[in-house]
Design brief:
With 116 residues, this protein is mostly helical. Helix content is 63%, strand content 7%. It has 3 helices and 2 strands. The two termini are 22 Å apart.
Length: 116
């Protein structure tokens, strides 16, 4: 703490930006890792684009939650592409969230601290 409330608040903003950016990057990296792991289990000649289950438990397990997803391997590969829809959407969500936090939370707070 510097003793200057505006400077301390600014450092908090920087830490928040870093945390949210790293979270976004980990989400993209996790998706790519998942795609890489599933690619190791190749399809067959009868089914070159198999469906992949994404869920907490096996889909037929007793008590398996209903919020799971089946995707084709090709869908996962498209989603994991660094320039594909999922990383782009996550980056856009980070930008919108960052702008919202600045415009609705941080800017008014800093203005108050600076007497503006």
């Amino acid at each position: 703490m510097s003793g200057d409330p505006a400077r301390d608040y600014y450092y908090g903003i920087v830490a928040e930006l870093r945390q949210t950016y790293v979270t976004t990057k980990f989400a993209v990296a996790g998706l790519q890792h998942f795609a890489d792991q599933t690619a190791q289990h190749g399809g067959s000649t009868e089914n070159p684009d198999p469906r992949i289950f994404i869920g907490a438990r096996a889909p037929d397990a007793e008590g398996s939650p209903t919020h799971h997803l089946w995707v084709r391997r090709s869908e996962l590969e498209t989603a994991a592409d660094p320039h594909g829809p999922t990383p782009v959407t996550l980056a856009q969500q980070w930008i919108v969230s960052t702008f919202h936090r600045w415009d609705d939370v941080h800017r008014p707070h800093l203005a108050g601290l600076c007497g503006v």
